[in-house]
Specification:
This protein is mostly helical. 60% of the residues lie in helices and 0% in strands. The structure holds heme C (HEC).
Amino acid sequence: MMKLWRWISSVRLAHVCVGAMAGVSAAAFAAWDGTPTGAVSSSVEASAVEQGVERGRALYDGQCAACHGPGLIGGMGPTLTGQSFWDRWSGHPAAELYDAILNTMPATAPGSLTEQESADLALYVLSFNDSVLPDAPGPAALAPPIIQKKAE
Ligand code: HEC
């Protein structure tokens, strides 16, 4: 009887132990997964342009999406994607898009964006539409590229 009890309790203990270990490894995994620097310091570093696109995405979500919609589909402001985007912007220098953002947006507070923010926003809009991108972030690099679909 005594032996059986000890066997049962040791099985139970083992069970608790496995459960605890699973809990620990899940927590460790979650912590690792949630650490933002983990992704950035990996061997595949985001390029400077990709980082600009990411900054632009955050700015867009905070300051533009209310009028231009999630996914740039438009709302109170015009759509900034699809056929309307290409009708309006195809063949124009990227600097023109940058200028429009810098000088006229957000419509409620034109001129409130810095040059860097406007350049990041232009990068985001271009990237979202699969346009050719400049090879560096920042206003100066936006002058030469002509807005056009990236070659497939
Ligand atoms: C309060 C609403 C509102 C907000 C916020 C807003 N926009 Fe606009 N946006 C508009 C309206 C309305 C137009 C169309 C009229 C115009 O071109 O001035 C427009 C036009 C544009 C255009 C096209 C300009 C052109 O010449 O065709 C771009 C690009 C643009 N917005 C980008 C942005 C970006 C980037 C932001 C965030 C910083 C932003 N907008 C925030 C309302 C807004």
